[in-house]
Amino acid sequence: MSLNFYRRVAFGLSPNEKPDKDPLNWAINQLDTIPDLLWPGTIPAEKDLRKKYGEWVYGDREVLRKKFKNDKHAYRKAKDELRIKTGERYFELNEHAIRHFQTKYSKQPVFERFWLFWGNHFAISEKDFLAEFSTGPYQREIIRPNMVKTFEEMVQSVTTSWCMIHHLDNSESFGPNSKKGMEWGETINENHARELLELHTVSPNAGYTQEDVIQLAYIMTGWAHKWDRKNLETGDIWFDQEMHQKGDKIVLGVKYKNDAKRELAKVIHDLATHPICIKFVSTKLCRHFITDEPTDEMINPVIEAWNKSDGNLIEIHKAVITQAYKYNEITHKFHPPEIWLMQLSRMFDLNIPLSFEKMNYTFKSKPNNRQRQLSWILREIGHSPYRAKQPNGWSDLEVDWVSPELLLRRFWFASVELPMLVKSGNRSHDFILACLKNNFEDHENMASLIENFRFGTLDYDLGQKYGVICNLPGVLKI
Amino acid sequence: MDGLTAVPVIGDKRLKKLRKKLILEDVLNLNSDFGLHPKLEIFHKLWQKNQAAFVHATNIPYTGRSHFDGQNLMETGAHIPYKEKTGWLGRGLLASNIIGKGLAISLPMPLLLRGVPQNNNFFPSPDFVETKLIDQIYNEFKGEHNELIKSTLDTIRQRPLSMQIATDSDDRKKLALEAAKQLKDQSGPRVAVFDLDGFDTHAAQGGVDGAHADELEEVNKIVTILHENLGQAFDNTLILTLTEFGRTIKQNGGYGTEHGYGSAILIAGGLLKKSQVYTDWPGLKKKELFEGRDLNSTIDSRAVYNSAMSICFNQDPEFLRKEVFWGDELPDLSQELFKI
């Protein structure tokens, strides 16, 4: 088995890891339990960060905007001070550190790859201040614990999470015949219902109609944040019967009797166990780990595992890895910038993220450049993970990631930025050769391409070496 | 963008009443009905030469007031958010068989340009990148599965030296200068796309010097640089703005405005027929407003873009309408707006 399997399903091998005798077993054994988050710094709770979110929007919208009506300069200044005080510019940096640290040091890196996959399947795209305060904790507290449960349970948690409800506007969706809908002349917002069908479960392959979207939106009415004057939209999620559309609903030909909050669980059950949903999500999993256009032959065993286990994610993950192993030698997969960065960081033991002591934040001044470094790199290579542009998340297709500028940015990172991240003990040529040998079958050919620089240990020399190595076809792709 | 701030209607008592704190002084004169925001100087200058025009009370057919859905639709040109994965400009280039001639001034390829292969994108990186590194590994890209990367490396290697710059990517002047240089080049791109934000002025929108004015100043800066540096090519050019929605008529409690509907399109370039404010003005009385609060849209802005593409790409507007906008009913405005 090629060493590239460790990059196909994980992040490659760090300098102190050795290839396993049985790579398939090595990978499969990582999926039964949820590894602890290893970041030694602060890991704030979702609820606490939501409170900060509330302080920020309340302070801006209800206080500053009114106070500085006529003075844009004073308004901007006061707003910057509020950013500092509420951590508006800090928490996302901390989340990136938590995430990167995990993929770098986890003893179950294969599990972590699935974590990234699901966080992107149920993506929270750039909206309001979600990336600043909420998307990170959503990944940790909603996605992660559900990875050893069933797909259906995952969909239930995601759909009723504050983050997703805010992201897809369900709090603004009123049943037109509900008490509040009638009183205020409000109606549904279809956004969340549409994405639940299109992106999260059955996909357009199920052939649902606009009427199905409307009916599902009716079922979902009432699942909203609890609004109050102080917390505004950051209150907890509850079911507001006064927003809920009365009467029976029909989605994809199935009738759901008027049953208030219980309707949602029933329809999610039917969607999450729908054969077209199973095929759609199995295909996405195979696309992520095997190749852009997986064949039925690759996908079918995953569907079988799904059906046999009633959607148990542990079993599904194991089937995906088994298929990835089976097709490892004959398929290719391009890695998006963040996974590429995580792999370089693990294989060459780079000096990111910043130590937790230095990541510590006092809410008294702007985060410093070093604290911003990892997030800045992610942005500059075009893949700031919690800022997908659309609710369908980041693409998993090579064609979306191969543009001139995006490739150039990889050369930029590897030749200019990476040398500054090499630890002082790792600057020798031999260190690079050892890392290559640990991770690549054709390490000798790779080494020959940087032979000219073997005596150089300055940043410039390291830049020449890493600039070449990190952008070779076998590193950009497996 | 707030069309009523960029191209204010003159002497409308109702607007004055509803926007007490957003009133513009020193508006530049366009005609008896409309003025121009004083920060949009270049448009005023070009107006004198029949090289600036405005389409008013226009928008994409989207009334949901969500930035995200709206931005998605203004780029795809579709009716349902997130349904289409390609942009109308990309599809227009593809239908016109103009392959690999789109240039995006941004890091990811904007949705607007997607749908046609080999587009270029450019955004100055924080440091200079030695493209000789590419030469060293180019021959390693073998086999069919590496073709896409290899051909993209070709595009990078064919880039002019001027594009291999490192600069502050927030400096829009430099970006505009670069785009002008590329567009002027006969073998360079046929279209370029800029991304601007900051028009979401919920507070302190202000008048002549407010937050919205700052953004208009940016637009003015970019168009000024394009005009200066395109030289003769400007005569053969159209510059159009695209926005997801306008703003409410009424100012809010923070002297800003909320998400609205109808807005305006600013147009500059030598391919314009004449200077004019092209509009089917719906009025600003309460019952004339969209849902009683926004400037209505009486012109589907996609008709303007379809007509502009037909002029620039030398295509039949009927053909483009079918290829790009699924045959939606979009009247051909070429006669009215552009030189044929």
Textual characterization of the structure:
The complex is a heterodimer of chains A (478) and B (340). Chain A has a domain at 162-272. In chain A, helix 9 packs across helix 14, helix 15 packs across helix 17 and helix 22 packs antiparallel against helix 25. In chain A, the strands form 2 sheets. A two-stranded antiparallel ribbon of chain A has the order 1-2. A two-stranded antiparallel sheet of chain A has the order 3-4. Chain A has 26 helices and 4 strands. Chain A is mainly α and 478 residues long. Chain B has one domain. In chain B, strand 1 and strand 2 (35-36) form a beta hairpin. In chain B, helix 8 packs parallel to helix 9 and helix 10 (301-312) packs across helix 11 (317-325). Chain B starts with a helix and ends with a helix. In chain B, 50% of the residues are buried. The model of chain B has no long low-confidence stretch (mean pLDDT 88). Classes of the chains: A mainly alpha (478), B alpha/beta (340). The interface between A and B is large, with 49 and 52 residues.
List the helices and strands and how they pair.
The complex is a heterodimer of chains A (478) and B (340).
Chain A: H1 5-8, H2 23-28, H3 46-67, H4 72-86, H5 91-105, H6 109-121, H7 130-133, H8 135-143, H9 151-159, H10 162-167, H11 179-184, H12 191-200, H13 210-220, E1 223-225, E2 237-239, E3 249-251, E4 254-256, H14 262-272, H15 275-289, H16 296-308, H17 313-326, H18 337-347, H19 356-359, H20 369-380, H21 398-401, H22 404-417, H23 429-439, H24 443-449, H25 459-469, H26 473-476
Antiparallel strand pairs in A: 1-2, 3-4
Helix pairs in contact in A: 3-4, 5-18, 5-20, 9-14, 12-13, 15-16, 15-17, 16-17, 22-25, 23-24
Chain B: H1 3-6, H2 13-18, E1 28-29, E2 35-36, H3 41-48, E3 52-59, H4 67-76, H5 88-95, E4 102-104, E5 120-121, H6 132-137, H7 147-157, H8 172-184, E6 191-193, H9 211-230, E7 239-240, E8 263-268, E9 277-279, E10 299-300, H10 301-312, H11 317-325, H12 334-337
